[in-house]
Amino acid sequence: MGEIQIQKVQRTVQVKDADNKRKKVQKTYGKIIYRKTLSLDDMAEHIMKHGSVYTEDVVIGVITKLKTCMQEMLADGHKVKLDGIGTLYPTLTSEGVEDAKDYSPSENITRVGIAFLADQSRKSMYKARSMRDAVSLSTKLYSELTGEDEGLTPSPSPSGEGSSNTGNGNTGGNQGGNTGGNGGGGNEPGGDGNDQN
User: What is the DSSP track for 63-131?
Assistant: First the structure.
């Protein structure tokens, strides 16, 4: 079982009282402490440690070829499904016009991107319920690193109520993460400052 470290974050949020008036209150939420961003080399080394018969250079070569082919297929309008991981697919944002004859892809499409939908099959590790059952959540490491018992960090919430990288298991898009499409929401990269993206 994996372990995800949680930082306690204090936010100012607006709530409605009994008289239906909005007021500001302090609430504490959990925020994931991201350990680091793993590179292709890191993942190849990790795969080798699991007893793979392939050397690190072969693993890197296969993943690099997969990446190149995926980019080619996505650019050709295909969806790419990686069983047990999820589906990547091209998305776009478009301005509407009143008359269909006036619509021009070159003029009215304002953005083309790629979105990711995590595998939602019954046995998938990437479903919110499966992920929750597969990890333990702890604030212990953060407290040990900072010397703070509570590890409480003030972090004003820009609007509404809710934590920045927690919630109903969605990370933007339709039930999965959105990595460049028009699906909205998403995890803020934040965390421990090690994220290199």
Answer: HHHHHHHHHHHHHTT--EEETTTEEEEEEEEE---SSGGG--HHHHEEEEEEEEEE--STT-TTSHHHH
The torsion defined by the Cα of 141, 156, 178 and 1, in degrees rounded to 10, comes to: 20
Specify the pTM.
0.57
pLDDT in tens, 115-143: 999 888 877 777 777 777 777 777 765 55
CA distance 137 to 37: 19
Cα dihedral 136/141/142/148 (nearest 10): 120
pLDDT, tens digit, 9 for 90 and up, residues 145-183:
555 554 455 554 444 444 445 443 333 334 334 444 333
Backbone angles phi, psi at 144, to 5 degrees: -65, -40
With CA atoms as reference, report the closest residue to 116 among 74, 53, 160: 74
Task: Please state, as a whole number, how many other Cβ atoms lie within 10 Å of the Cβ of residue 114.
Answer: 17
101 within 8 A of 95, measured Cβ to Cβ: no
- Residue among 166, 162, 161 nearest 128 (CA): 166
- Give φ, ψ of 137 to 5 degrees: -110, 130
Q: Name the residue among 34, 10, 84, 37 with its Cα closest to residue 197.
A: 37
Residue 193 backbone zone (phi > 0: left; psi -120 to 50: alpha; other: beta): left
